[in-house]
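Example 3.2
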Amino acid sequence: MIKVRIVLVGVEGEENIGYVARAMSNFGSGDLALVCPKAKMTEITAQRAMRGIEVLKRAKTFGSIESAVKGSELVIGTTGKVSTEKNLLRSPATPKQLAKNLAGRNGTVSILFGRESSGLTNEELGKCHMTVTIPTSHANPALNISNAVAIILYELSSDSMRGKTLPSMEEKGVLYRFFDNLIGRTGVQKTRERVVKKVFRNIAERSTMSRGELYTLAGAFRKILNKLKNK
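Structure, written as tokens:
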């Protein structure tokens, strides 16, 4: 079973730290990390946390995303912006798709939430294995950070996650290496090659492919590579 670590990057509001802790306690999540917070924990933070005060007491502060997510099986970035042809980093799954993707996995999953005013940067999203977004009205797309945390934790705690087994990150890594080697032999321009690899990972991370499906794909890629080598 997974353990969820909530990572707030550059959080700006002292009250929001408390609201997030409260939401985490509602769903039995107690692993909170703060990366370079702009806000400090104050009496207001504790007041907003209410029964989530224990989450605040255990919260840790880090100077970088890398140190905050150390030991994580998977790193997920949240974004309120959808992708364009020029920005493939923002090709997010929905919370329901994320829950299906994580079903049956073990280890720690770190979920990054960005600044209230501007979210996560492209560079920060680039440190993530996948991204997730919460569909909202185009007229009012912004959610309070604690609401976003609550929605995602709700989906991750739902019954749909239980009793399923999906490929591990190591197994997906095997598939990615075969795909990367295959693309590297196609003669695709280097800049385009990076985009194709990113698109393939986006699709794979959003999918709920079974272990058998993954090995079927990996086997096909391996056979194609072997034929290319023998030519």
